[in-house]
Amino acid sequence: MSAKKLGKQTFALTRPPVIRGFGSVGGGKEQEGPLGERFDVISPDDTFGQESWEKAESAMQHMALEKALERAGLTAEELDMLLAGDLLNQCVGSAFAARAWGVPFWGLYGACSTMGESLALGAMLLDGGFGQWAAAATSSHFCSAERQYRTPLEYGGQRPPTAQWTATAAGAVVLGLRGPGPRVTHVTVGKVVDKGITDANNMGAAMAPAACATLEAHFADTGRTPEDYDLILTGDLGKLGHEIVSDLMARQSLPLPRYQDCGLLLFHLEGQDVHCGASGCGCAAAVLTTTLLPGLLAGKWKRVLFCPTGALLSPTSCQQGESIPGICHAVALERGEG
Amino acid sequence: MSAKKLGKQTFALTRPPVIRGFGSVGGGKEQEGPLGERFDVISPDDTFGQESWEKAESAMQHMALEKALERAGLTAEELDMLLAGDLLNQCVGSAFAARAWGVPFWGLYGACSTMGESLALGAMLLDGGFGQWAAAATSSHFCSAERQYRTPLEYGGQRPPTAQWTATAAGAVVLGLRGPGPRVTHVTVGKVVDKGITDANNMGAAMAPAACATLEAHFADTGRTPEDYDLILTGDLGKLGHEIVSDLMARQSLPLPRYQDCGLLLFHLEGQDVHCGASGCGCAAAVLTTTLLPGLLAGKWKRVLFCPTGALLSPTSCQQGESIPGICHAVALERGEG
Questions:
Q1: Half-sphere exposure (CA, 13 Å, Cβ side) for B263?
Q2: Which of A139, A197, B321, B333 is the most buried (most CB within 10 A)?
Q3: pLDDT attached to residue B338
Q4: Residues with Cβ < 8 Å from A16, sequence gap 6 or more?
């Protein structure tokens, strides 16, 4: 057992890295949502001046990191590494965004858990002595996701009540070893969990068991309880997934008193026609960078557990009758001292 | 500057992790190739008993890790983490393979550089104090790749002379902190490099500049020269990419005296109709686990530089007229003492 390992899945960081900068970018529907005014860059034109949705997504991820670097007072050349991923086939959203930076790059695939995965790995690598500055970024785009996962927009497919709406959003953070800002204190690494859900329009139900497994592991490994957190934030389970997690955790005698889900925060559930809420890598990234980090900085919360969830399916795996595996990485964030 | 950082892109591991186990799986064409007899598991039936090529790929990756664990004398429960990725959309080859293990999981996307990325990150995390045991795995399958990237097999499309043949292969390694075996001493993290190649049937040319950039960075950062390595092994550039790297490095006054490419080793270039050679995540993984690691153990080489290369394109990015970004991560391996 290494000094940093707690229990089975959790690591306690010995030099908790600090989030020194963060940036957020959102599209038109995000602008109309409850967090609309908090984005650094927001555009009612979801093309962001690009000629395809995929290129728009790369542009968004690039802008998010630009803002994060600006807040951190850094240039890209000072970054020791960038960790990023997205939902597009072969993660081209991130690869093409990274191309412009010329920064040592780790490509990740964690579906909608990517903001958690990139933040966790970046913090662990800095804590492990691998450089001074790391950036973590992710993005999703409603229009690129719809045509890849479901149907072309022009098809006008009907969305079932359990569907969620992929966020057109990107978020990025810059991690450093010193200075003021929220700190990454613990990481609970998720396992792939599959309880046999096969409905690709019900991602919340597919991912909820992974969120519960990671939360249970986190509490068992750290000896903490849900009461120790001012906020526990999963993402992006949406309305149904949030209900399932609340219910399952209560049955495990771990009721979550202050529990929210990123998928419930990005849009107005009534009035924006998003059914069960928001989804996509950009959802948790946007909530982190527009709400969670500013709230920690402002003293609204002292300690939060950020738990992005991912559904590790593909259209091909669904067509072949496979069920939907989920994953959830938990990252404990604490308000840093000035 | 942290103690482990050398120059701009390289990290020197302070407790060089040891490759304690490795496993390799190959298909029918690989069996007929020059490395055919060295695979742990080889099957003339490329379905591996599964009902789809994608499920066959997951099964292969699972078997490779099974063999690696067996050689390391470990059970999956003892692993602190598994790092894996593949070429399939949303990396389902790895996600479904990981589902069965119940091991904390980091999903990666590095295209054909994934064996380098997973090995590098696994070694860095162990060196950083994050556990005792990490596994790294990847896979590719000719039949799942052809229908995803190019055309269905039944179409019988003509392959241009610069094309490479995606390996039906998987490889896995188990890393630990102690004991005998080859050690990971240095990692040079690649940047995304794009010199404007747009021909998706000429991946070698697209990835060669990334390989050169990483090799140059490695030598500049470490103060080593190509002469310091008994073998430099890129992968999977194939015949044309190997020529380009040889030429470009010589022009940089860094000629590579003992240089090979994984894409040239897996198949018989004459007689197996593979044109420029092998490609796919499984190519570098198979050469590592069938040839490089056994050679290090047998004393054939003392110090090698393993540099898998990835082309970070997607069919969509090509259709949209984008050029092909490449990446290459370099991992220095040294023969360990008994």
A1: 35
A2: A139
A3: 47
A4: A123, A127, A183, A184, A185, A334
Residues paired with residue B308 on neighbouring β-strands, in sequence order: B235
* pLDDT tens per residue across span B137-185: 999 999 999 999 998 899 988 999 999 999 999 999 999 999 999 999 9
Does the reported pTM lie above 0.95?
Answer: yes
Is the Cβ of A102 closer than 8 Å to some Cβ of chain B?
Answer: yes
A162 pLDDT tier (thresholds 50, 70, 90) = very high
Q: Is A178 exposed, middle or buried (0-12, 13-18, 19+ CB in 10 A)?
A: exposed
Decide: A229 and A305 in contact? Cβ < 8 Å. yes
Q: Is A130 in Cβ contact with B11 (below 8 Å)?
A: yes
CB contact under 8 A, B2 and A322: no
Return the residue matching tokens 């054939």. Answer: B300
Q: Which residues of B touch A194 (CB under 8 A)?
A: 99
**In terms of CA atoms, which chain A residue is nearest residue B118?**
A106
The whole-angstrom separation of Cα B261 and Cα B278 is 10
d(CA B161, CA B275) in angstroms, rounded, equals 6
Smallest Cβ–Cβ distance between B104 and the set A9, A104, A106 belongs to A9
Instruction: Give the integer Cα–Cα distance in Å for B137 and A114.
Output: 19
Q: Do A106 and B312 touch (CB under 8 A)?
A: no
